């Protein structure tokens, strides 16, 4: 991949109270400190550390509040844009003109590393829509205590890794569709069923792999869609629940120890 692509970080708040913020003075999840920094800072630094990523747009209901975060000071190429209430409509409004590719991730994807970005973008080439995912055995081999939402297909159970590559505005019909079902994003079978009865039956009977299922779903919108399996299990550990925070803090501590042990 010879040139960099833009990135969008979804950093808004969902409707209703967030249990992660209970008892804190933090107003929005993206600014909740983990491992010594706000969640958003970890994600933006990882993106900025990748030579494959160009300008970064941060979408949130109150983007000025995020722009004032001291941990982002001095990082180049950051743009802050106010979003609406829905992820899909906000993302659709932020897409650049044309159909050049861009990366989308989330502010709670705090374990993101430049190596993950490189692996994902290499696997996402030649697609209109690509989704990063981790197979269950990959995660549980290292973190058996981690509990995720799994999509069950022939040949494996999969969890999303909060990275997407989109070919610009050609994905607008898909985003419009997602806007109607995103409230069920944690209910795997409801998501599959929304793409039609054949996909639901195929998933229930394990008639095809997740790669085949995602490809079929993309065809509904005239898009070439693919799954990019991630080799690093941390790719699907986002900060959703208090138990996630504990695990992420432990992973950050292990990373710091490993960095200290490396030769100069």
UniProtKB/TrEMBL annotation:
GO MF entry, a single one: nucleotidyltransferase activity
Domain called MobA-like NTP transferase: residue spans: 27-135
Listed name of the protein: MobA-like NTP transferase domain-containing protein
Methyltransferase listed as a keyword: no
TM region(s), chain numbering: 188-208
SUPFAM superfamilies: Nucleotide-diphospho-sugar transferases
Record-linked InterPro entries: MobA-like_NTP_Trfase, Nucleotide-diphossugar_trans
Species of the source: Sphingopyxis fribergensis
């Amino acid at each position: 991949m010879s040139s960099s692509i833009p990135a969008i970080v979804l950093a808004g708040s969902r409707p209703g109270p967030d249990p992660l913020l209970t008892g804190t003075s933090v107003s929005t999840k993206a600014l909740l400190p983990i491992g010594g920094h706000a969640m958003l800072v970890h994600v933006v630094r990882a993106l900025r550390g990748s030579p494959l990523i160009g300008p970064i747009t941060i979408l949130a209901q109150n983007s000025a509040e995020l722009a004032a975060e001291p941990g982002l000071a001095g990082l180049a190429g950051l743009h802050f844009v106010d979003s609406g209430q829905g992820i899909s409509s906000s993302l659709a409004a932020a897409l650049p003109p044309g159909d050049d590719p861009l990366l989308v991730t989330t502010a709670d994807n705090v374990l993101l590393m430049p190596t993950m970005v490189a692996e994902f973008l290499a696997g996402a080439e030649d697609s209109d829509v690509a989704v990063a995912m981790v197979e269950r055995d990959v995660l549980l081999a290292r973190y058996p205590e981690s509990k995720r939402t799994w999509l069950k297909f022939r040949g494996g159970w999969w969890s999303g890794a909060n990275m997407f590559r989109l070919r610009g505005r050609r994905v607008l019909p898909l985003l419009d569709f997602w806007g109607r079902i995103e409230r069920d994003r944690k209910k795997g079978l409801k998501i599959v069923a929304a793409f039609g009865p054949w996909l639901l039956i195929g998933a229930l009977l394990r008639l095809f792999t997740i790669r085949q299922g995602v490809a079929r779903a993309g065809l509904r919108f005239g898009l070439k869609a693919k799954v990019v399996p991630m080799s690093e299990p941390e790719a699907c550990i986002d900060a959703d629940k208090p138990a996630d925070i504990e695990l992420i803090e432990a992973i950050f501590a292990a990373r710091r120890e490993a960095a200290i042990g490396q030769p100069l």
